[in-house]
Specification:
With about 140 residues, this protein is mainly beta. The protein has two helices and ten strands; from the N terminus they run ββββββαβββαβ. Helices cover about 15% and strands about 40% of the residues. This is DUF5675 domain-containing protein.
Length: about 140
Amino acid sequence: MDLILQRHYFEEGTNGALFINGRFICFMIELPWLNNKRQVSCIPEGIYELVPRFSSRLGNHIHVMAVDGRQLILIHKANDAAKELEGCLAPVSQLSGIGTGWSSQLAMQKILSLCHQAFDRKEQILLTIKSPSLILPKGAGM
């Protein structure tokens, strides 16, 4: 299964939209891009494998594997990136601002349901993180 996260970067945080097979799933919030610094930056754009993870603190969540220079990058519930994330990604049902949103638990359940179906089928899940490419109007050459 392939997931696509389309990001938009801002000074205060990063907002994105998550898609599976071209279908919108939920929004994602993250910390701002600060050159991949541990605990204060979102992770670099790229392709990452996702695997299931459980902890007593977070319950069921998802581990983003092989992030260059980082460890334990997770997808878990949070409604405010600045207050609740240390480099991880959080799904939200609705954006309420830059790096903030509502109903993270509901969005997380949606992602877990889709991913666990794929995990049960022994399918690899890949997350591609990218920012939208610049589209110029016709005739507006650079």
